[in-house]
Automatic annotation (TrEMBL):
Coarse class of the protein's main subcellular location: mitochondrion
Cofactor comment text: Binds 1 FAD per subunit.
Residues of the Amine oxidase domain: 17-352
Species this protein is from: Saccharomycopsis crataegensis
GO cellular component, one term: mitochondrial inner membrane
EC number per UniProt: 1.3.3.4
Alphabetical keyword list: FAD, Flavoprotein, Heme biosynthesis, Oxidoreductase, Porphyrin biosynthesis
A GO molecular-function descriptor: oxygen-dependent protoporphyrinogen oxidase activity
The protein, known as: Protoporphyrinogen oxidase
InterPro entries in alphabetical order: Amino_oxidase, FAD/NAD-bd_sf, Protoporphyrinogen_oxidase, Zeta_carotene_desat/Oxidored
Amino acid sequence: MTIVRKAGSLAVIGSGISGLSFAYYLSYFRPDIKITIFEKSSRTGGYISSPLDNKSHKVILEKGPRTLRTASDGTLMIADLFQRCGRCDEVYGVAKTSLGNKKYILDWQNHLVEAPSSFYTAWNFLFGGNLLTKGLINDILKEPWRPGPIITQDESVEGFFSRRFGPRVTDNVVSAIYNGIYAGDVGDLSIRSVMPRLFDVKKSHRSVVLAHITSRLANGLFTGVKGLFRAGLTMLGLLKKKWGGGSDLLRHYQCEFSTGNVWFLKNILKKMPIISLKNGMESVTNLLRDQLQGISNVKYVYDCDISGIKNGEKGITISYTHNGTEHRDIFDHINCTVSPKGLSDMVEDPKLSNLLKAPTYSKVRLVNFYLRNKNYIQDSPGFGYLIPKAYYKHNPGLKHQAILGVIFDSDVEKHRSQIFNPATKRFSAKLGETVEEYKRNLINGEDWKNKGTDKEIAQYKGEFHEVSSTQEYTKLTLMMGGHYWKNEVIPNEATALLNAKDVLKKQLNIDLNEISEDDLIIETAMTDEGIPQYNVGFEDTKQEILDKVDVLYQGKLTVSGMSFNGGVGVPDCVSNGYKLAAHM
Ligand SMILES: C=Cc1c2[nH]c(c1C)Cc1[nH]c(c(CCC(=O)O)c1C)Cc1[nH]c(c(C)c1CCC(=O)O)Cc1[nH]c(c(C)c1C=C)C2
């Protein structure tokens, strides 16, 4: 990647979460660069979309991702962004111990089995006498004695788990998890891509169970010693916040960008594995869009159709049509954040174009339900449930319904609470303001960093109560399709709705025929290029693409976005955008 010259120009293709995050951070690190954001539609956000329902216009019905995992650095960056922009009151968390955090797996007789999230729930899961885990403990305990070579080659998730533990683990549990992340087939997904740590363990150990136990013990010992050491240093006043635990990226973010305190945030969020936003996930992309709109060096070109990207001596040219007119603009650099397939139509080289067509996506249909006045899922409150492969093995007649899982949106909403004390609005800062300027501009000139944050954390801890809405309602999202539609005719909207209604009746005992039209909202949305599939061979194709792009465009083109981030989540897009921008 080249470093863009002083006062140079850069184009971002795509205004989804990846494009906007990159542009936002770049405008901070390189305010001298002129940034043009190209978007083929007339809105920003890409697959993130949180419209109000089209019936009562009072309910947000998310058409894409809706929660963020706080274990990711990108989530801290998003929370920090809201804090920085004075909108802390919009960030909510779901506490670890809250009902809104319970996840289930559906067994083949339509019972919800709680997935493990603690020692207690893990014990119950394994020994609680349910259909899914009958005999599972045996499979796990036998693993160290299963013969098998150390393998250095990539293989499918299913291949790996079935070889080490037998088919039951994959069919009943692992397949459900991968339905809930990639909407993907465990028979295709690559262990190297989706579980890189396990893949590394497998390269050096015969038993993953023994390797896990040894590493847990060693880690425990290391953490214990490290903890004592840190406690000692803190007592001596030697440990500064900028050395706080966390990744190198977070440390960079804290020192070079944040006007808040990400370590403090990280501490708060340890108790809250899930974040959601008051006005839906689209408020993240809207916030980024609005912040960028206020910067004179940033320009948007909506409704444009890019036909070509060409490398030349003076720079890299984008040919596009906008408002019926053809344009050719030269830039010093392009960051392409759209899908590889989208890019394949823009590049000249046929070999690269073909390579870019190789990565596949899962198509997913969402069906949103909003049922007024009653909570229909009070028997099994939680985040939602996933459906394992075994469900369709035992119910082959239902496979055409292709349900991957159901999200209990209303439970997440009912069990969330604000993560920031509204008083912390003083963290607000403007984009482009330096840390020093920000500190100077603090209300009353107070440096909040020196104000007993430990006390504040304790105060926040006390706030992790569960809030329930006064008005009862049920909001659900059914997710269908994914790998089940790989080689099948995809059902049309009407069939999908019939299937969804049948699923509600069978799996949740909700009969929509008994609910009045006035109390019911149903919407559906289809995503064709939903989630990139990190299938076996994907890493090699990705590397081939990156190498070819490098040779052909000599560092003037970078490709990012979900296919190249190493993760398919919204936080991955944000942290990757930061990483790229910070090095320009
Ligand atoms: C039923 C289908 C889906 C549900 N969510 C997604 C699909 C396809 C999409 C999705 N879920 C996750 C990611 C990655 C995001 C990230 O931040 O890393 C994506 C793209 C996260 C996720 N969701 C579940 C798990 C186990 C994970 C990974 C790790 C974690 O957060 O703990 C579980 C889950 N997903 C869905 C449901 C109903 C569900 C559990 C009950 C919906």
